[in-house]
Design goal:
single chain, mainly alpha, 6 helices, 76% helix
């Protein structure tokens, strides 16, 4: 049980830093409304990553199912949650000096963002496997369809440069994620 407490502490710190990065980046639009222009698609992806982090944090409550911890498991979990921080750092860089705004920046870094997002879904499969065969997602077809389709859509988003596509993709990811969370966790 001591290992779990330690691991949950590390998870909390890194995910807390991730959320702080998102909130700090988002609040700049309130603090300095004329300095940086909001870009709708960028803001949608910020909200989506926020949802993913909150979902992941709740999801990791299931780490209690792991009876025996190994360093490889611990190392993997830490690397997995660092992916979330990396996505936050990509969404909100330290400065935009080389760009005309968040729209220009987002599309110049979309390959990185969607590549890392695809990796996060692949890492989710490993995370589920670590929890063991008794973990309830092992028996849910939708889980595997979700992971595979999201990876494919992320890879497609790397190739597609159409801004309308990116707007609808972000909306679809958000709507699906909200639906998935509500169906997964609000079942009696």
């Amino acid at each position: 049980m001591e290992e779990l407490t330690h691991i949950k502490s590390i998870i909390g710190i890194i995910l807390g830093l991730s959320l702080t990065h998102l909130i700090k980046g988002s609040v700049l639009f309130i603090q300095h409304p004329g300095r940086k222009k909001i870009y709708f698609v960028h803001s949608l992806w910020v909200f989506y990553v926020f949802l993913l982090i909150i979902h992941f944090w709740w999801w990791e409550f299931n780490l209690k199912l792991i009876q025996e911890w190994y360093f490889a498991d611990y190392f993997f979990i830490i690397c997995y949650i660092l992916i979330f921080y990396l996505m936050c750092a990509i969404l909100y860089p330290d400065d935009l000096v080389d760009y005309t705004g968040y729209e220009d920046y987002f599309y110049s870094r979309k390959n990185w963002f969607f590549g890392i997002l695809a990796i996060s879904f692949g890492a989710d499969l490993i995370d589920t496997a670590i929890k063991g065969g008794d973990y309830f997602l092992y028996n849910q077809t939708e889980y595997y369809i979700r992971i595979i389709s999201h990876i494919i859509l992320c890879l497609l988003a790397i190739k597609v440069h159409n801004k309308v596509f990116h707007r609808y993709l972000a909306i679809a990811f958000i709507v699906y994620e909200l639906s998935y969370i509500l169906r997964l966790f609000n079942v009696e």
